[in-house]
Structure formats: C-alpha cells, structure tokens
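Here is an idea for our session: we take a single protein and study its fold together. To get us started, please write out a protein record for me. Once you have written the record down, we can walk along the chain together.
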Amino acid sequence: MGRVGLAAESAHGVEGGATFPRTLSSYDDENLAGVFAKLAHRARQEPFNVVATLIFLGAITHTFLVGKFVALSRRERRAYEALEEVENHPEHGEKIAGKRDRLLFRAEVYHFLGEVEAVFGIWGIPLAVAIVCYKDWGTMVRYISGASFAEPVFVVAVMAIASTRPVLRFSELCLARLAALGGATPGAWWLSILTAGPLLGSFITEPAAMTICALLLKRRFYALQPSGKLRYATLGLLFVNVSVGGTLSHFAAPPVVMIAHQWNWGFAYMLTHFGWKAAAGIVAANFVYFTGFRTEWRALAGRAPLAARQERPIPWSVTITHLLFIAWTVLVSHHAPLVILGLLFFLAYVEAAARHQQPLNLRGSLLVGFFLAALVIHGGCQQWWIEPVLSSLGRWPLMIGATLLTALNDNAAITYLASLVPGFSDGLKYAVVAGAVTGGGLTVIANAPNPAGQSILQGQFGEGGISPVKLLISAIVPTLIMGAAFMLLP
C-alpha cells in the first residue's frame, strides 16, 4: 500500500466533532489489560469497527475464490458459444438470442468477480453503504475523498514505464550478462532474474522490479512450459524476493518508506541492518529451490535451447530517456499530481518514439492501481485492531505476528500503524519491519507490487489462473528462510 496516509490520528470525516475512523486515543483504553479486552472495548464503543472488519475478511475470502469465478465465467461463455448456430433458427431464434444474452451477461459478471485486482473495489461498495448507514453520506464522502492515493498513482505510472520495450530490453541485456556466466541456460536465466532482479528493486523501486522480473520470467522461463510445481515455486520466490529485495535502500520498499523518515532510517542504516541479510536470504532461497528442481532444469535445457532473438536495436538515447522518466517518478512519488504530469509527458514521448516501442497496454497497471486504491480505503478502517495486536507482542513474537498479519493486510499498513505505537524500542522497530517484508510474498495483497506480478503472469497458470492457496504454500519455504536470515544473522 505504501504511502497511503492511513494516519490513525487524522480526520478523514468529521461528524459532531468526532473523527472517522475514530482516533486510537479516543478509545481511552490504556488501562485495560490484554489485547482481547481492548478489542472488545473498542467494538462496544464503535460497533462499525466489527462491520468494517467483517467486510474486509469477506474481501480476503473472495481473493481465495477468484479461480472458481473464472471457471464459472468460462462455463457460461462456452454455453453462449454453443448456441451461436441455433440463434439463426427461424422458429427459435428470438428465444435463443435472449438466452445467449443472459449467458453472456453472467459470463462477464463472473469474469469481473474473478479479477483479483477488482475484489477489494467490489467489497468497497458494501463498506461505503455501511459507512452511510452507521454514519451518514457526508462522512462516507469525506472519508474516501480524504484518503491519499499517492501510492496507487505511483504504482500505475512506474508499472507503465517499466513495462515498455526499451526498459525491458535494457534489463534483459544486464541480466543476460549474468546468465551468460552459467551458459545462458534456462536455469541460469532463472537464477539471474530471481537474484539480481529483486535486488534491483532497491534502486528502481519494487513495483518496477516486479514488472521487469515478471515480464522476463514470462519470456525466458514460463514460455518453456515447466511443471506446475516449478511454476508455483518460481512465483512464490518472486513475490518473497521482491518483498525483501527493496530493503537495501530507504526509498524503494513501501513498508520501509512509511517509517524511514519518522525513525531516521537512511540508506546506510537499511543496508547494514536489512539489505545484506535480504541478499543472503534471496541467494539461500534460490539455491534451495534450484537444487530441489535440478532434474527438471536438465529437461528444460534440452527441450528448448534459448536462441537469441534478432530485434531492432534501440538507440541509447531512447533507453536513457525511459530510465530518466522512472527516476522522475521515484523522485516525486509522494506527489500524485507530479507523477501524473510525468506520466502524461511519458505517453507523449512514447508516441514520438513509436518506432522503438511496443503497444502500450495500460490495463494491467490500471487494474493494480484500482486494487491498491481500494485497499487504501479498506485499510483505514482496520487500524482499531492492528494497533493493539502489534503493541501486545515481544520482539520475536512481534516479527512473527507482523509476518502473519502482512498476509492479510498490506505490509506497508502494518509498518505505518506500528509507527503509531508509543514506546517502540529499536529492537521492536527492527522486528516489525523485518516481519512485514518477510511476509510480503505469502498472498497477493501482502505487498503492493504483487498484483503487478499476478497481472502479468496470470495466463501462465491455466484456465483458473493463479491459485491463492498454491501461492501461499509455495511461498512458505522462502518466507521461513528470509525470516531466519533476519532473526539469526547479526
């Protein structure tokens, strides 16, 4: 979620002098012992809290069912296509046409319900209705209007720029040099993309790194039709590695950006406390999975040797201009109007340099932006339970708790809410950030760049798309390795 402005003490809506959502200090429960006592007290004082959280849990449950809706959509569409010839029958044409219309409508509805990026937006409707019912229309309007959507806008822009041919080609050339050290085999490409790509996110931001890695994996790895187990193992590694790969710096990973200024964590601090451990964990996790599938690597190398494609060269001036647009987007990432202005200039430049471009498809980046914007709206109503849960834990239990909570609520929201807990020691600060980035690959909603990877690679996992359960299972091993690196390395 990143820079989403989920300030527990900010007033998104005002009604009778009270803020919405309620400030954490307004519950006056500092003297209550136990997290459950605090949660019960807050639920009694503000029953809307329970409603908002139930709606949020409904959205999370929906994300695990998107494959079912996709299957239903395909079934309805097949039935629609099967009646195509019958529709022209002179006796039953009108009746069949009406039936086909209903089948097509249901197919589109199921397809929309099966878009994981649309899930939280869909569940935003009952949340808005609940706010109106429990409060009023004005409170709902002020709450949504007052939310900060800088992070979704930033992700849309950086995804759009990073997915262009010049940036992708430049990244591919850089990674090709690493892959050449291993003979440019599928396994060498796999290792290069999953090792260097995520660490690159510390400098071009995690959303850009996710976009580039996913596109290169799609071309260099998934196109070889690996086994289902290796497909999901790669996806789990990608999500976990990108989540921790942005911790070499203080400006690239959304959960770090949320607290870096407030806690005075600069580049040197991140590199010495997090960055080198993240790099060690990435190498270790990649090694475990690479050796575990060593038999399949030999089969893939023999099945489809990678011949270099002859492509029209791209002038360095065009590539450098694209990289400068990424740099501008990162520089002004806190300021949505400037990000949008840069994106508009970039779109104009793409038209001017059309000969060196590929068709620019904004659908994926816009869907991811919609997903994050909806998550911002939902996340603002979840602080009532996240804050007491985090503040009740010790150092390592806090890290484990942050890891688990991240799977259910974007890791940037976890770190930001942790920054509001009074009296956090340096050890607790380290633990909550380490846990947040460690758990960033467990689900699609755990880390802001994950929907970008999901959008790009969705078609590589069959008709049902990416299974949330299989993603969770495939990410457990690298998550444990990353957790061990942050806990055990000095």
Notes: The radius of gyration is 24 Å. The chain has two domains: 48-146, 151-380+440-488. The longest strand covers residues 13-15.
